[in-house]
Amino acid sequence: MKLDSKIPEGPLAEKWTNYKSNQDLVNPANKRKIDIIVVGTGLAGASAAASLGELGFNVKIFCIQDSPRRAHSIAAQGGINATKNYPNDGDSTYRLFYDTVKGGDYRAREANVYRLAEVSSNIIDQCVAQGVPFARDYGGLLDNRSFGGALVSRTFYARGQTGQQLLLGAYGALSKEIHKGSVELFTRREMMDLVVIDGKARGIITRNLINGELEKHFGHAVVIATGGYGNAFFLSTMAMTSNGSAAWQVYKKGAFFGNPNFTQIHPTCIPVPGAPQT
Ligand SMILES: Cc1cc2nc3c(=O)[nH]c(=O)nc-3n(C[C@H](O)[C@H](O)[C@H](O)COP(=O)(O)OP(=O)(O)OC[C@H]3O[C@@H](n4cnc5c(N)ncnc54)[C@H](O)[C@@H]3O)c2cc1C
User: Fold this and answer.
1) From the CA of 159, how far away is ligand 1's center (Å)?
2) Quick one: DSSP state of residue 231?
3) Most buried in the list 183, 184, 195, 219, measured by CB within 10 Å?
């Protein structure tokens, strides 16, 4: 078994920027011929599908619920970090990178965390453009607060319902692509299995939860964006769909499963029922 996370070469701060500048591009005329399956309509899946659709790919997106708006992302509260440094309290890309790696108990992939810190400000701009009503100060500028023990104020928030507002923004972008015809939405579908051909994920089997029928869908690529699995734990208030079913299916087909000992379950504070859940 070989672990290869395919992190690009080069100095940390340049890895993904260099990769983006040199990666193979798809001819715009050919994008329509490429089918991409996205499983999950939360913040991850909805935004990925909307962006892929906007780029010109042919996307199919699936969720268990009756609407993408019911993904568990709706429950997120606190906010989203970005290095805009509006309060001028010394924030920087490196500082957000450092705090995130430390907050992740030094287990995160550093190159990916650096990229996250680098694009964080663009993500806020994108969300604002999508209509996400982040909190503003009395002067009308976007407000920031300190969150999660950070020494700087870099959290953009929408009262205690940031996830809900972000999900509505992502859903709006997704709906635009559905209306355009670049994304096809399948609600009330549960992924039952991953189809692997020559070592590559090429499709999924779903169950139609309305009539019980099994369906098959082909894709040149499959994106698994099925969220957390807090319901695997005895005590959790997470949505019933946060059950790890898709993660287990892809694991059985050869995907790696990382750091199960570093899982955030909601609510964050719960009584200790025994040694495995401490
Ligand atoms: C109470 C709470 C507070 C939080 N606060 C913050 C915060 O302040 N800041 C922050 O950054 N993060 C916060 N988070 C975490 C953050 O909200 C989540 O990590 C993120 O929203 C997960 O998004 P997702 O798209 O990966 O998953 P989800 O939103 O859970 O979406 C999963 C999707 O996958 C679908 N799915 C699952 N299994 C299958 C299957 N077998 N077949 C088909 N579809 C399937 C579901 O239907 C759903 O559409 C919080 C989370 C919670 C619960």
Assistant:
1) 19
2) G
3) 183
CA dihedral 134→113→252→239, nearest 10 degrees, is -20
Minimum CA distance residue for ligand 1 atom 33: 40
Alpha-carbon span 267 to 260, nearest angstrom: 17
**C-alpha to C-alpha distance for 65 and 190, rounded to whole angstroms:** 9
Q: 105-118: b or e for each residue (b if 16 or more CB lie within 10 Å)?
A: eeebebbebbbbbb
* Ligand 1 pocket at CB < 6 A: 39-45, 62-65, 71-73, 75-80, 163, 189-191, 225-227, 238, 241-242, 245-246, 266
